[in-house]
Amino acid sequence: EADIYQTPRYLVIGTGKKITLECSQTMGHDKMYWYQQDPGMELHLIHYSYGVNSTEKGDLSSESTVSRIRTEHFPLTLESARPSHTSQYLCASSDSPTGVNGYTFGSGTRLTVV
Amino acid sequence: QKEVEQNSGPLSVPEGAIASLNCTYSDRGSQSFFWYRQYSGKSPELIMSIYSNGDKEDGRFTAQLNKASQYVSLLIRDSQPSDSATYLCAVNSPMDSSYKLIFGSGTRLLVRP
């Protein structure tokens, strides 16, 4: 049973709309991550957080923003959605500061911007 | 050179055969190594982790690590069509203080009935 939850699972939205993708985990993990993945392509890290009030940009430049006000919650926001934002967004968390136990992934949000 | 390299495949094996998936990494200081399975349209699922040289077995899966050669592999015995998926190799890299996992681009495995 998943301990990291993403909502919505699927989202179709019009260009220019503001959207927030939700990610919550019940494991008390400090480190959380957002990845973007196009079908059949590799994972790209777009944001990560080491804990409350800590956020960093990842390796892939993204127009999205994130916040970490509570340990369990790491939402991702797109202020103005564009068709180029169409992708799968995966949230993950880790219980170890050094990643020694790997990451646990949520089930993902598949976003389509029309 | 990518930090974690995998052959993209597809690797096609008949049902019941051994599938061998390989991964090389560039950072000699890496300490933790993982294999994730990702079905099409789904999120990655951790199936194996390995931390020291040698073999680690879990059911039909065996992970092998050779730090001197900077090489990690995953063997799947008695492959089943349900094993058809993309397998991601991930390496814990202390190259920067963030200790992020570095993922390979994945190898697609097809198990033919």
Q: How would you explain this protein's 3D organization?
A:
Chain A is an all-beta fold. Chain A is 0% helix and 47% strand. In chain A, strand 4 (31-37) and strand 5 (44-51) form a beta hairpin. Chain A is globular and about 40 Å long. With 113 residues, chain B is mainly β. Chain B has no helices and eleven strands. In chain B, the strands form two sheets. In chain B, strands 2, 4, 5, 9, 10 and 11 form a six-stranded mixed beta sheet that branches. Chain B has a five-stranded antiparallel beta sheet with strand order 1-3-8-7-6, with no helix packed on it. The A-B interface holds A 33, 39, 41-43, 45, 48, 50, 56, 88, 90, 94, 97-108, 110 and B 31-32, 34, 36, 40-46, 49, 51, 88, 90, 92, 94, 98-101, 103-106.
Helix content of chain B: under 10%
Helix content of chain A: under 10%
Radius of gyration of chain B (CA) equals 14 Å
Spans of chain B of 5+ residues with little confidence (pLDDT < 50)?
Answer: none
Which residue ranges of chain A are poorly predicted, with pLDDT under 50 across at least 5 consecutive positions? none
Task: Assess the beta-strand content of chain A as a share of residues.
Answer: over 45%
Structural class of chain B: mainly beta
Q: How would you characterize the largest beta sheet of chain B?
A: 6 strands, mixed
Radius of gyration of chain A: 13 Å
Main sheet: strands, sense, barrel of chain A:
7 strands, mixed
- The chain-level mean pLDDT of chain B equals 93
| N/C terminus separation of chain B | 36 Å
What is the first-to-last residue Cα distance of chain A? 33 Å
**SSE string of chain B, helix = H, strand = E?**
EEEEEEEEEEE
Figure out the total of helices of chain A.
Answer: 0
Shape of chain A: globular
| Proportion of residues in extended strands of chain B | over 45%
